[in-house]
Amino acid sequence: MTKALDFGSVKLKHLALHKVGNKIQEEDLELSDFELEVEENSPLHKSLMAYFLKPFREGGYYHFTDESEDLNLNEMFGFSRRLFNDPFEQFMPQSREIAKHLYNTSTHPNIKGGEFYVAYLEDCIVDGEVVNAIGLFKTENKEKFLKVKDQKTGAWAIVQDEGANVKKLDKGCLIFNFEEEKGFKICLKDSPSKNVEAQYWKESFLRLKKREDSFFHTQNYLNICKEFVEDVFNEEHNVERPQQMDMLNRSMKFFTENEDFNIVEFENSVMEEPEVIDAFQEYKDQYKEKNEVPVFDEFKISSTAVKKSRKDFKSVIKLDKKIQINVAGNEEHIEKGFDDEKGMSYYIVYYNEEE
Question: What is any one of the record's Gene Ontology cellular component terms (predicted)?
């Protein structure tokens, strides 16, 4: 199967390093005048390429956006377009402008300063297309390490230093020279934290919106299914845990076994009962309004989105600390009750054969 995102033939053509502090803390912005020279296939080159590219996986793409819907008002879109149009002449000037823009958007007191790399990459493969890309990578967290030095006198010296872990990229993005009219196609690496200072990379510096593709629509619907079970199809509405697990299993099964999504087929196959279907439709409308996202009734199912969401569809009932019931179907063979004499809840499981 062809990879949607393939970096096997990528070439690092230009690389710049700037130091970007926290503006509100009056830290410095140190801009470089020259490109970094890195010998191709050297140990340093291999480490940098792994550091830059390994965190990115297919699925979940973004575009540049602006509240006015005029892309020309998004600074990063302008810098990127100028760089793509003339990478030889514009690489250093635009890399400096991008670093200045990052500095000007680093205005939360908790944002950490750090090294900021700007790279120009050739021959990235995105959805079968060979395209160039701009890579932006910021190092914020440093780790201490020990380095042993040979003193040439029969003795060794141990020096403590600190630096970036090449296996832990803090913040990054890849801007592909693809779909310029929509705001380019972009991969994002960011902190999972929802803190304001953690969101500046995506919200203030880049100003991105999710790309509305099959991954986007599949992930949206899977989120709706999961949250519907948590918020509505639950014990507060007289739905026991085995039935909840079964609903999640049937939802995941539908997305796993079908290539195309159709709302009528999904509701008839998974929800079945008219009152459950009505409740789901009402919840779907609320989700759409609350999250301000489009929810389509027909789309191509993304297997990548299904794989990424599978871990969130838990089908295990945990009892106390050491007992688990894995519900993979036949929830009607599981009964829940309460023993008044023991003052404890219980489950009864009916089965035909023991394996």
Answer: nucleoid
Q: How many CB atoms lie within 10 A of CB 229?
A: 21
Q: What angle do CA 182, 183, 184 make, to 5 degrees?
A: 100
Q: Higher pLDDT residue, 305 or 100? A: 100
The 3 state secondary structure assigned to 264-298 is: HHHHHHHHCCHHHHHHHHHHHHHHHHHHCCCCCCE
Identify whether the C-beta of residue 317 lies closer than 8 Å to the C-beta of residue 327.
yes
Q: Please give the Cα distance from 241 to 238 (Å, whole number).
A: 10
Helix (H) or strand (E) holding 197, with range, is: helix 196-200
Amino acid at 170: D
Three-state DSSP class for residue 50: helix
pLDDT tens, 286-312?
Answer: 988 888 888 888 999 988 888 887 776
Q: 306: alpha, beta or left, given left = phi > 0 and alpha = psi -120 to 50?
A: alpha
Largest Cα–Cα separation, the chain: 84
Q: How far apart, in Å, do the first and last CA atoms of the chain sit?
A: 36
CA 144 to chain centre: 28
Q: What is the pTM of this model?
A: 0.77
Structure tokens at 136: 């932006």
Beta bridge partners of 131: 124
Highest mean pLDDT among 3-7, 66-70, 104-108, 288-292: 104-108
| CA–CA distance, 326 with 332 (Å, rounded to integer) | 14
Helix, strand, coil percentages, rounded to 5, for the chain: 40, 25, 35
pLDDT in tens, 47-78: 999 999 998 876 678 999 988 888 999 999 99
How many Å apart are CA 197 and CA 180, to the nearest integer?
Answer: 29
Looking at residue 223, its amino acid is: N
* HSE value, Cβ hemisphere, 13 Å, CA-based, for 105: 20
Closest CA to 187 of 12, 54, 28: 54
